[in-house]
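Ops channel
N.P.: pipeline sanity check, posting one input/output pair.
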């Protein structure tokens, strides 16, 4: 019998990336198309389908997993709106892809896909339950328990980046105030640094270079950011009691500048009984398309059948 395969599709800000994967997480084929912000529903759906279609040469593909930023409805498979594509509204992603290719389609928030991918193919795959935080432009989160993703009612749960760090604090991209991602994320670091210095940085690497060079303001922003993130993770641990907490995303490239301090601050703030068992680590930054393909593997394709 030929091995089962899954297609994973990662819808990002500037491109749609699709990959064909086997159960070992090996990428056998891939396809990428660029996108621009000014896309109508119809044109956007056409690009998604055109990215997937070159990968359908094999007969043994068991499904298509799709991940994108939300808000979305994972039950009906609609993307409700998108910060990257402002013209999109109520896009029927799952139905369109299912009708076109006659395969099962699963659709979830990209941070949830990242968490599932980490639990299937990351170094923490032996953990019974796993909380994953994606540290990038903002902060995303996903929770996997016994191989199954928990994404809340219709798929918009575990939005860890929008838990409150400072009541009535700095304005967040979501429109509310004081969210943790306003204090620990690329956008958060850039905005907090601009507030203090009138100097607008372009990326997180520049921010961490300033920290390394001993810049007083950057160091203070990072110190407070770590504290905010540690308190947020503490809350999440007391709520979910995961076996492991794993950090992924672009900002983990600078893990050596904050990882140890963050881990220490989290451990210092949780129940001792949780601390003894909890694992905290940096993850592998797997491809978004592999995370999306994990949606197919998690729907009845795991282990011997
Ligand atoms: Zn927010």
């Amino acid at each position: 019998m030929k091995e089962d395969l899954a297609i994973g599709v990662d819808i990002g800000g500037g491109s749609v990336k699709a990959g064909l994967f086997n159960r070992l997480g090996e990428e056998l084929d891939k396809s990428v198309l660029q996108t621009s912000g000014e896309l109508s529903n119809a044109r956007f759906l056409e690009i998604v389908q055109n990215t997937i279609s070159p990968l359908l040469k094999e007969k043994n593909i068991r499904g298509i997993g799709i991940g994108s930023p939300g808000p979305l409805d994972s039950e009906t498979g609609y993307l409700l709106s998108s910060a990257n594509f402002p013209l999109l509204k109520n896009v029927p992603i799952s139905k369109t892809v299912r009708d076109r290719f006659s395969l099962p389609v699963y659709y979830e928030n990209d941070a949830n896909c990242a968490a599932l991918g980490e639990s299937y193919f990351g170094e923490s795959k032996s953990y019974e339950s796993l909380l994953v935080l994606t540290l990038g432009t903002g902060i995303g989160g996903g929770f996997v328990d016994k191989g199954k993703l928990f994404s809340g009612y219709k798929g918009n749960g575990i939005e860890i980046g929008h838990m409150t760090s400072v009541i009535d604090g700095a304005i967040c991209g979501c429109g509310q105030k004081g969210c943790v991602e306003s204090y620990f994320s690329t956008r958060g670091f850039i905005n907090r640094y601009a507030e203090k210095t009138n100097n607008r940085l372009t990326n997180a690497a520049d921010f961490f270079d300033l920290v390394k060079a001993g810049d007083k303001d950057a160091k203070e922003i990072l110190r407070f950011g770590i504290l905010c993130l540690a308190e947020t993770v503490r809350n999440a641990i007391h709520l979910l009691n995961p076996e492991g907490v794993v950090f992924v995303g672009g900002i983990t490239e600078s893990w050596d500048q904050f990882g140890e301090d963050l881990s220490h601050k989290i451990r210092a703030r949780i129940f001792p009984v949780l601390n003894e068992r909890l694992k905290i680590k940096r993850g592998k930054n797997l491809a978004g398309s592999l995370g999306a393909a994990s949606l197919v593997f998690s729907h009845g394709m795991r282990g011997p059948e």
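N.P.: looks fine end to end. The CA atoms of residues 259 and 282 lie 8 Å apart.
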